[in-house]
Amino acid sequence: MIAEEQKPMEEILGYLGGKQKVVVMGCGGCATFYRTGDKKAVTDMADKLTKEGKDVFKMPLPFSIQACEIDKSGVFLEKNRKELENCDALLLMSCGEGVQIVTEYMDEKMGISKSVIPANDTLGNVGGGPIHLKETCLSCGMCELGKTAGICPLTSCGKGLMNGPCGGVREGNKCEIDENKDCAWVKIYERMEKLDELDKFTSIRDPHQWSKTKRPRLFEMEEPVKIGLAAGIDAMKGMMAVTFGPKPKLDE
Amino acid sequence: MGDEVYSDLMRELKAGEYVFTGELEPEKAGDVNEPIEMARELVGMVVACNVTDNPQSFAYVNSMAASYLIQKETGMECVYQLRCSDRNRMALLSDVLGAGALGLKNILALAGDHVSLGDTPDAKPVFDLDSTTLIKLIRTMVDDGKDLGGNEIHNPPKLHVGGAAAPGAAHLKAEVGKVKRKINAGVEYLQTQVVYYTDVLDKFFGELGKVDVPILVGIFPARTFGQADFFDKYVAGVDVPPDYLEAMRATKAIKDKEKKKEEVDRVNIEFFTGFLEHLKGTPAAGCHMMAVGYPRIIPPLKKLME
User: Fold this and answer.
1) pTM of the model
2) Separation between Cα atoms, residue B288 and residue B49, nearest integer Å
């Protein structure tokens, strides 16, 4: 899941300076989860912009339709072609990926070149929840977890050291940079100790191979997954069970 | 590890002499006049002086340039501090080659404080290598004449690499594990973070056990109350004893400059007499005296070790 938070209104209004007609587009994926691009967020944003004197057209996406999955979101873009052609700017309430994928699609497939403004700041891949989430994976392209007892120091160590801890560990084994964060290397030490693998701690890990992160990374699926009716129904059942069903007990 | 000796620091350490090093801090200035003046005062007092590299992530004169100028102007051998915070592996390699070309003989390989702690907090932190892999890089360059990619270095640099240790680390076992890793990487000497408490030192040496790498224990006789207070408040793993802090605070009230100096010296000598006496009984190979801007305190403290 990609975490995001809404930018300050002041910044958004700065980007929209001189743009009268604004389409506000939501996202039914991560941005809905973080309430930065769900239907309510789109409505609230539209209200604020209307108060600022803008002419606003709302374009929320249904739940599970993500702005970045262009074969699905593109259907909604095409459906609202007229509004997009007539607007001065599109304010996209998704992550940075959604903003850019939509921009490229509009430019190249729809022939509509407009200012596309991000409403959100994208904060990274996070997991956990439902309240506390944390970033644990950089998506670096070469997973090092096998060397570090299942905790990624590139992400979880404030300095991204492959051979820590640094000399700045604070009292309570907290990070040099932020006293609210745990030192990842103390965590790694403690896990290795539990696993009786402390010999791995003192071994030297080679520097990370950043050549695997040549940006932008491109990825091709030989056979894109097609969600058939049966799989769709199955997914819905799963979603309903998680949302409305009894919570599983940990001892079961 | 090769047997060659390139520096006076390493010569003294190998000879088993009790070694004293000092510390110089280049500033945010277009010259290094002040550290040069300090170095002049320390010639003959310490075998070498560390030259800090953007300490606490405050951007100052480049430590390689400062080390070269100090060494050239004063003859004081320098320990060129090099941190990974601001340079990727290519820049680090380039700097090590540069240091060799300029005649620097000692490097202290450091991860470095995070850039967000200093005066340029929006800078992109690098940390492409860490202290261990920087030590390994330098050893590979010096001993094998190769870089990390195995590429040949023509006329490899001739210098020694040291590392840091933090006896007061919040998690001593993890810290000691890291120190052992640095030893595995080929570190030739260690200099510790500042220690004020003898039991902290004893626990560290006890946890570390016997190692073949000489360890210089860091002490910080403060020139002002502000310096001591800064260490206490902002330097992780360093606790300044309240009694010492209070005695230093009391010196602030003395208006006469000479009397103030005398009292600051007296407080430091009184405090460090016990500490240095204790140090003699530890496995330490010497003392790293981080008396930045306070060279006059080194002779009386050295005398305590005789």
Assistant:
1) 0.92
2) 9
